[in-house]
Specification:
Layout (H helix, E strand, L loop, with lengths): L6 H10 L5 H14 L5 H10 L4 H14 L5 H10 L2 H14 L1 H14 L3 H10 L7
Helix pairs in contact: 1-2, 2-4, 3-4, 4-6, 5-6, 6-7, 6-8, 7-8
Length: about 130
């Protein structure tokens, strides 16, 4: 199935990332990811800084960034993997792995060993395929 390009729709979704209602912003991020809207990458990255207390919105933005697959999102995803809330860090690890498995590997190793959350460490180990992190 091919998605059609509708710039007005994409623009409305990008603007929706700034909506005061978190559920609307989260849905907009999810749809942008599903549509793989590359022009939304800067706005999705901005969500990570502009909505620090909205974990669901941040997680949706991280997932969308991974799904879109723009290499320019890699640094923002690394930052989210290292300093976001637990749910966001786990989603960022998956997004990094989807985006560039080779570049993600050293980050996963570090997080698998040193992250304060056992759930995040376990997710990093799972994404590494169970290889030894020592």
């Amino acid at each position: 199935m091919s998605l059609t390009i509708d710039h007005d729709y994409d623009t409305a979704l990008i603007e929706g990332l700034r909506h005061p209602r978190p559920d609307i912003a989260e849905t907009c991020a999810w749809v942008l990811g599903q549509r793989r809207t590359r022009c939304a990458v800067p706005a999705l990255i901005a969500v990570l800084h502009e909505r620090p207390n909205e974990v669901d919105v941040q997680a949706a933005a991280v997932i969308a960034l991974g799904r879109i697959g723009d290499p320019g999102a890699f640094p923002a995803l690394v930052e989210a993997a290292q300093s976001g809330p637990v749910r966001v860090r786990r989603a960022a690890l998956r997004a990094l792995t989807d985006l560039d498995p080779a570049r993600a590997r050293p980050i996963l190793h570090t997080i698998a060993e040193f992250d304060p959350s056992s759930g995040v460490r376990e997710e990093a180990r799972r994404l590494l395929g169970g290889e030894d992190t020592q």
